[in-house]
Design brief:
Length: 384
């Protein structure tokens, strides 16, 4: 549950889970102000990057049929959840840090809805992302490691997309009850009404379901995939150019997949570890010094910013590591500046006739199907 000390902007405070911070006067006040300004700048940057980046990824895949393969549709699934979380959660965070107040200055009915949906959508986005990443990994496992095996029907998009959302909504539904508007001195504040024991059970469950178990599954699957792709031979391929192209394609796929997974867990794991330390009263055992408490205060702010940064990182990863995404983004948003498509002639041996085809990278590049032995690579595996 979101209750790192005075950190979420939702009025959560901890049910006794947070340590008793000591007031070191001007030093602590200066650090608090520095972190406030840092948080404002970070959240504004995340808001802009997430809104533009995720919208760009969604529009690019929707407007280019050749991009509408299973992996890219699941990436869109993550982009939609990240965009919703950005729009629901970040404005409230900015309001709290800018005004230095957690008091809600809107009608009570509006405050009640925002109080619940701000933390709820943040955690739903986390869940949708992790379930989508696991789905991509399992799909790639079947396509690359055991291509002759029939994929389970559950891996079809008509089942995958709804299941990621239904599971994410159900596993986080407790947020809709836990966060409630309470009046204190006639001022509206959003409070976590769960007991400490309830928080411990729920947060431990979420850590296991969304961090520990998926991380182990993803590491295992991508290790097997990497080993298989490293050993995979191309039927009929000869010469250094084919081998070099195979290694290049394999490397791009592995780097893209591992990078998405790595950044997700870098963004969320430290937050959850520190959260569990708070709710299990680790400070009562270790009793950190005042200087250590200042470090913990800084870390909790940084770790929370990282979780919100996860909303903006996937589009950046796709653009940086996927030449295919870059190419189609350019085609989607800069069509008027692109040169007209040229044609080339190809002589067919069967009919000895000349046929005109558009000149494109899809015609000239070694397809991913030649690398992996998978049929219809343009619509199944063109993620690089």
């Amino acid at each position: 549950m979101n209750h790192l000390c005075n950190n979420t902007g939702n009025g959560t405070g901890g049910n006794g889970a947070c340590p008793n911070n000591r007031d070191d006067g001007q030093t602590q006040a200066s650090i608090t102000e520095i972190m406030r300004i840092t948080s404002i700048v970070s959240y504004v940057l995340i808001l802009v990057l997430s809104s533009l980046g995720n919208s760009t990824i969604i529009a690019t895949v929707i407007r280019n049929k050749s991009m509408q393969n299973k992996a890219n549709v699941l990436i869109i699934n993550m982009a939609v959840s990240d965009l919703l979380a950005t729009l629901f959660a970040l404005p409230r965070m900015l309001d709290v840090y800018i005004t230095k107040s957690k008091v809600w200055k809107v009608p009570e009915v509006v405050a009640e809805g925002a109080c619940k949906f701000s933390p709820f959508m943040r955690e739903v986005s986390c869940a949708v992302s992790i379930f989508s990443m696991v789905a991509i990994a399992v799909d790639r496992f079947y396509a690359i490691v055991v291509p002759m095996h029939r994929k389970p029907r559950l891996l079809e998009l008509k089942f995958l997309i709804p299941s990621t959302w239904v599971t994410a909504l159900v596993t986080n539904a407790l947020y809709l009850y836990a966060f409630q508007m309470k009046k204190e001195n006639e001022l509206l504040q959003c409070k976590n009404v769960l007991t400490l024991q309830q928080d411990r059970i729920f947060d431990t469950f979420r850590f296991v379901v969304f961090i520990a178990v998926p991380l182990q599954i993803l590491v295992y699957l991508y290790i097997i995939i990497a080993i298989k792709m490293g050993r995979q031979a191309i039927p009929g391929a000869t010469g250094q150019s084919f081998a070099s192209n195979r290694r290049h394609q394999n490397k791009k796929i592995v780097i893209l997949a591992v990078t998405i997974v790595a950044f997700f867990f870098i963004s969320w794991t430290p937050y959850y570890v520190l959260l569990l330390m708070f709710i299990y009263n680790a400070w009562q055992v270790y009793r950190p010094s005042p200087n250590a408490m200042i470090v913990i205060f800084i870390l909790q702010r940084v770790f929370t910013i990282l979780t919100y940064a996860s909303f903006a990182i996937n589009p950046i990863i796709c653009i940086v590591f996927s030449s295919n995404f870059r190419r189609h983004i350019t085609r989607t948003f800069c069509r008027s500046h692109l040169p007209k498509t040229r044609t080339f002639t190809q002589r067919t041996t069967a009919t000895n006739r000349t046929t005109s085809r558009p000149l494109s990278l899809h015609n000239l590049d070694i397809s991913l199907g030649q690398v992996t032995g998978i049929e219809n690579p343009t619509h199944e595996d063109d993620i690089t």
